[in-house]
Amino acid sequence: MDICGLLSTALQSGTNTDIICQSVRRELPIGKITLGQAIKTLRTKVSKMNQDDFAALYNLSRRTLSEVELDRGNPTLKTLSRIFAVYNFSFCIKLVDLGSEQKIVSLLVKRPTQYA
Question: In terms of Cα–Cα distance, which of 98, 45, 43 is closest to 69?
Answer without folding.
Answer: 43
